[in-house]
Amino acid sequence: MPITTGRPYLAIPGPSVSPERVLSAMHRTAPNIYEGEIVDITRGIVTDLKRVALTRQHVAIYIANGHGVWEAANCNMFSRGDKALLAATGRFGHGWAQAATAMGVTVEMIDFGKSRPADPQAIANALLADTAHEIRAVLVTHVDTASSARNDLKAIRAAIDSTEHPALLAVDAIASLGCDELRMDDWGLDVVVGASQKGLMLPPGLGFIWFSDKALEVSRRADLVTPYWDWKPRGLGAEFWQYFGGTAPTHHLYGLRESLTMILDEEGLEQVWDRHARLARSVWAAFDAWGQGSSGIALNVADPVSRGHSVTAATMPNGAAGALRRWLEAEAGVTLGIGLGMALPNEPAYQDFLRVGHMGHVNAHMTLGVLATMEAGLQALGITHGAGAVEAAAGAFARA
Question: Is-above-0.85 flag for pTM?
Fold first, then answer.
């Protein structure tokens, strides 16, 4: 008999768990959108969004998901026929490339595969080969949500600087913002895109772009920019409605005000990063234990330094990952993420991959509980696995 009574748990890499107080802040009547409280709240939100990305530069808010802010970034960085260099480390790198290509941008891709980070020197070599400086921007994911590979943005910035190439450095931080350390100004990032439904602990619906003065100047010449996606009025406009290209996303703003207070003023941004790192190490310890012997269970990214702290991608061969996901949802009320981009849905290997999300409003008992129910599923299904995973996860957490 399934034991799913009680609150289900969505352990996928977004939408993440939204705190009750964030949801409660959203559960209210609509405000006056012309003056008063919502205008004042938004001014504070803009300030605090800059604090989250550790920048003194500009931020634009969009009513959109991550795909929307990919398009917004492309509009503002490029003219039709421009060239981008994209370093792909998983499915979402390819997705950004596809979005740019569909908009008329020529994308030169360096594909680093699905289980390792980008090599900064390879990026530098591609820029050195571009003697005419046709490449307008280097696009890279910080943490690819599909592969869980994390790129060293400081090293990539240094590699770009070593070439003296003028290209912008644009970063997809959708899966890392508010989970992994990210310092826009200190690391020399020109464009950072993010979304509400992961580390910021909100439902999907808001997208964000932080952009530097250099990127702002580039956008003034971009002929792909359209009135709605233009980041200039959103980041620099004098009137309230310009922040949103029209009607404000009022209830999301109330929730965002609450989540930013929790992150910045209560827990503290660096403590948030530390919590995610600690929980990630617990998940990795469990998979390392399950992978002992002949199980074939393995983390997707071998080097811990190159793994994101918000999501863990792994393989369980012979269809075990798919079987475990189905068992957990049906029997235990836990939903894990699919192995996105690792194989096509009609291929048998598609069932060999899964992802565990541990981002946002997550603590030890939530993450350790997921791992314990996964252990129960492995036992119930007779899937070969090493012993001691839950103990290893608990030990990793206890060691801080």
Answer: yes
